[in-house]
Amino acid sequence: MSLKNIWHLRKVADTSSKPCYICYKPTTSVLITPDNKDFFYVCLGHLKDRNFCSPIVDDAEVAAKKKKEDLDREIELIKREYEEKLKKRKAKDGKAKAKDSDKDKDKEKEADEDEDKKAEEEKDEKIKAIASKDQVPAVNDTPRILSLHKNFYQMRLDRIRNAEIAKRNRDRLKNPTTFPSAPAGDL
User: Is the pTM of this model over 0.85?
Assistant: First the structure.
């Protein structure tokens, strides 16, 4: 019986909530071993307690988080560039409008609106291209893979060991060959 100290965090439905292993409040978070040998319900608050468990860093999760941050930074940069273009165009148009006549203003307004629409569409296309190129799933802050601290881990091992001993004892009591035979001789 070798139980590794690696636990995966899983969620269950609200209707399947059971009491927390520590505080007995109803919870939907379950810690389970990768081989499904042992599991127990635990509150999210206990998972954040550094004296209960510690996260095992997953390289793929860290890479996904970094990729998402880079993607957000790139989208923000595109938005800023678009806003700067609009400011420059408005400043340029303000100077030009003071010089032009009323007839040309109507034509320029239409041209400006067309340019604004094109710039807006260009910005949206760039953002969509970046977002579709790098589809990154949402990453939550709670770690998914944990290791229990030694006292809690030992409690889980003792619980499993005691269950196996109790099962062995039940099997022994059911088997009639484990009892001694009655004496056959005279008294």
Answer: no
Element of type H or E holding 147: strand 145-148
Distance of CA 92 to the CA centre of its chain: 48
Structure tokens at 147: 């290791």
List pLDDT tens digits, range 164-180.
999 999 999 999 888 88
pLDDT tens digits, 60-73? 777 888 888 888 88
36: left (phi over 0), alpha (psi -120 to 50) or beta: left
Q: Report DSSP state, residue 36.
A: S
Is residue 177 exposed (0-12), middle (13-18) or buried (19+ Cβ within 10 Å)? exposed
